[in-house]
Write a structure and sequence with these properties.
The protein is α+β, with helices and mostly antiparallel strands and 479 residues long. It has helices at residues 12-23, 32-42, 53-60, 64-76, 148-156, 170-177, 282-286, 289-294, 321-328, 330-350, 370-391, 421-432, 442-445, 448-453, and strands at 80-87, 94-98, 107-110, 115-118, 125-131, 178-184, 189-196, 199-205, 210-216, 224-230, 233-237, 244-252, 258-265, 306-318, 353-359, 362-367, 398-412, 415-419, 437-441, 459-465, 472-478. α3 crosses α4 and α10 packs antiparallel against α11.
């Protein structure tokens, strides 16, 4: 059973001010602000720790993009703080937390699993929101105040990771295999009786991130041992253990408190890749226009590049913009171009995308899915058609290209940008397009949602050689 911590006093004036600030930002769905306030006032402590906006949306009936916007604006209003978490896919341990993307490393090392891997923004980077201490104090604000089971199983681990193929929650497995869990004061020694089984005995100090995987084998010679935990790691003597009732002397060699658990894993145990319910990933967030508007200072570290497994990139450009400036004059043409940016921005944001940058008269935008990107592209053509009709002239003719694939997020000119061949191909595909045409690579067009969206549109297929790209691409022109 998880501990129920008493609700601490709420700073009423700060809460009222913050909610009023968020409410004034935009028109929200009915009772959205009330639902957020109810969570802040009545939620148990861990329901306000690392809040998953996707789960909050499901529980409250709020549209998911709106829930993400709600928490982003709540950070600006000092109601919540935002953290980026590196999530171990093998055990669900929150390996590291960062209060800024700038501080995040592209490498993930889980001390508990002894796993090393690159941190993909799609899969292993979770963004969560925790209530600000100035609004309401919660026990996880002070980890040392937590009961030891909560410190291990709720503070350090993601609670929702499940074993693959419909297996049980991984934390339930850990709890069932836990033979000992408690704090030891600095320098403390404690006698512990446990039943050893054949397999692996995990001995870990979560406060100092040191641990060991100790085999327990039928050929082992001892069931009594001394376990020393210190800056040098975990040392067990004797190191040859056999199954049966065992007596351990645990020694905390640190000057401060350790948090120690002993978990018995069965023979043949291998780290599995856990399955997680949907959460707000780093890739999700970077494709939020609200995030880019509110957190312009959030960039990847100068020496870092964070991988993205799957990203849809869209480029636009204006057909014959130079002639437009010559024909109607600089001031009027500039005003038209700026106005067209507003229409494109609307289409991008309404389809869960984000503008990365404008390049002259062109736009680069990104989307988490190809369906969102193509939906935005069709909406752009509709918006520009409406704009031209209102102007009474066909002054703006849009060219659009999309490609999908792996990319890396980088810091370029002090803003978030993307680098890699996927970006290059998307830009070259846009070069193929004529006025009011959308060009898609096969990687985009093969998506089922994209094919459904393209019904009723004229689609032609061709092989294309792209400038600066060696292989040819099958592309699809949509009108």
């Amino acid at each position: 059973m998880s501990t129920q911590y008493p609700i601490q006093q709420i700073n009423e004036s700060a809460l009222d001010d913050g909610l009023a600030q968020v409410e004034a930002i935009r028109t929200w769905s009915p009772r959205t602000i009330a639902k957020l306030e109810n969570r802040i006032r009545t939620g148990e402590d861990f329901s306000l720790f690392r809040v998953n906006p996707v789960e909050f949306a499901r529980e409250t009936g709020i549209p998911e993009p709106e829930a993400v916007d709600l928490f982003l604006h709540s950070v600006q209003a000092d109601l919540f703080r935002m953290d980026w978490h590196l999530l171990c896919p093998s055990c669900g341990d929150i390996v590291q937390s960062f209060d800024s993307l700038t501080k995040m490393s592209g490498q993930l090392h889980c001390q508990f699993c002894s796993v090393d891997m690159k941190a993909s923004l799609d899969d292993y980077v979770e963004v969560g929101f925790t209530i600000s201490p100035g609004i309401r104090g919660i026990a996880p604000h002070d980890p040392d105040s937590l009961e030891v089971e909560d410190y291990f199983f709720r503070y350090h681990f993601c609670e929702t990771g499940q074993l693959p193929d419909g297996g049980p929650p991984f934390l339930d497995v850990l709890k069932s295999k836990c033979r000992f869990v408690d704090y030891l004061d600095g320098g403390e020694e404690r006698s512990v009786e446990v039943d050893l089984e054949e397999g692996l005995l995990v001995i870990h100090d979560m406060r100092h991130t040191v641990g060991i995987y100790q085999p327990v084998e039928l050929s082992g010679s001892a069931t009594d041992a001394t376990i020393q935990i210190s800056e040098e790691g975990v040392h067990i003597e004797p190191s040859s253990l056999r199954p049966g009732p065992a007596h351990f002397i645990l020694k905390n060699g640190f000057s401060d408190r350790s948090a120690i658990f002993l978990i018995q894993l069965p023979p043949g145990y291998e780290n599995a890749t856990l399955e997680f319910p949907p959460f707000l990933s780093g890739n999700n967030l970077l494709n939020s226009q609200t995030f880019r508007d509110l957190f312009r200072g959030e960039t990847v570290g100068q020496k870092e590049a964070l991988g993205i497994r799957d990203l849809t990139i869209l480029f636009t450009d204006l057909k014959a913009s130079t002639e437009l400036y010559e024909r109607i004059g600089d001031l009027e043409a500039f005003a038209l171009v700026q106005h067209h940016f507003e229409y494109l921005s609307k289409a991008i944001k309404e389809n869960q995308g984000a503008i990365v940058k404008t390049i002259g008269d062109a736009v680069m935008a990104t989307f988490e899915t190809p369906g969102d990107g193509v939906s935005a592209a069709y909406a752009m053509l509709d918006e520009i058609d409406t704009f031209n009709r209102a102007q009474g002239a066909e002054d703006i003719a849009l060219k659009i290209g999309l490609h999908r694939g792996a990319s890396i997020a980088v810091n370029l000119n002090d803003q978030l940008d993307y680098f890699g061949q996927t970006v290059n191909v998307a830009a070259r595909v846009q070069d193929l397009a004529g006025p009011n045409e959308i060009y898609l690579t096969e990687d985009v067009y093969s998506d089922a949602t994209v094919q459904e969206l393209s019904k009723g549109h004229e689609v032609t297929e061709q092989d294309a050689h792209l400038k600066g790209v060696q292989k040819s691409f099958k592309v699809f022109c949509c009108r």
